[in-house]
Amino acid sequence: MCALVSASVAVDLEKGKEINGTCAACHSDNGQGGKKGEYPRIAGQQVKYLENQLKSFRARTRVNIPMFPYTQEREMSDADVKDIAAYLNGIELDTQMPTYTGKEDALTKLLMAEKVMIIPRAEGDLEAGGKIYQKQCASCHAKSGRGRGMFPMLVGQYTNYLKRQVDLYRAGDRAHDEEAVGGVLNTLDEKQIQDVLAYLTSIQDPKE
Length: 208
Ligand code: HEC
Ligand code: HEC
Prior knowledge:
Number of strands: 0
Order of helices and strands: HHHHHHHHHH
Number of helices: 10
Strand content: under 5%
Bound molecules: heme C
Radius of gyration: 17 Å
CATH class of the largest domain: Mainly Alpha
Helix content: 40-55%
Oligomer: single chain
Mean pLDDT: 90
Largest sheet: none
């Protein structure tokens, strides 16, 4: 919740919630995404990163045909971008099934269970993937994989969505970081990428 407060210069979370109504059709009410990663998770993502992506969808520097109409200037102003980014960042999804006390009613139980998002473990060499990740990715995406600022959170995201983005970067269809298009991702082979993705699924639960 403190991320919300620090980013909250004139952020209107009620407005963010209202905008989320149009996003929910694809990304689901709590921002979990869906269709096994065709629609990525957007809940809990870094504010700055969310803002940057929405602006680049709007400007078509990142091509996203399904979303383009929702990000057109008239439909999504810069103020809206701030509100929806702050709202989504504040949605906390759990990485473990809740332990019920027995006192919850059915609706409360349902709401608790709906906020759980566990990415299935991906196949791969966790040790090798961990070494690559900590050496070559953590400086930007953080040791925990939770990102910071403009660097997106990678843990808790659908593996096939991440793989699709890696492929786009490697093909030069999306810019990974400003200094080098594709950059570090082009230095890794398929097996190494798979190992990193497997590693990310193994560190999603901060309590483990
Ligand atoms: C018609 C379906 C659809 C709707 C509605 C939609 N999105 Fe998306 N969104 C997508 C798809 C598909 C992608 C993944 C594109 C890709 O694979 O590059 C995406 C990607 C994103 C991403 C990038 C995530 C990342 O990790 O890089 C963000 C952020 C996002 N959407 C936010 C929103 C917001 C906010 C709204 C509501 C204003 C919204 N979307 C409405 C389909 C949709
Ligand atoms: C120099 C900083 C830097 C390093 C190192 C780095 N990244 Fe990134 N990464 C970024 C930035 C910046 C973005 C967001 C780019 C944008 O705005 O589209 C990103 C985005 C991504 C995304 C897309 C996430 C999404 O939600 O769409 C993936 C996947 C990714 N990086 C994987 C990796 C992996 C794997 C490594 C290590 C092999 C790595 N990155 C190393 C800066 C970095």
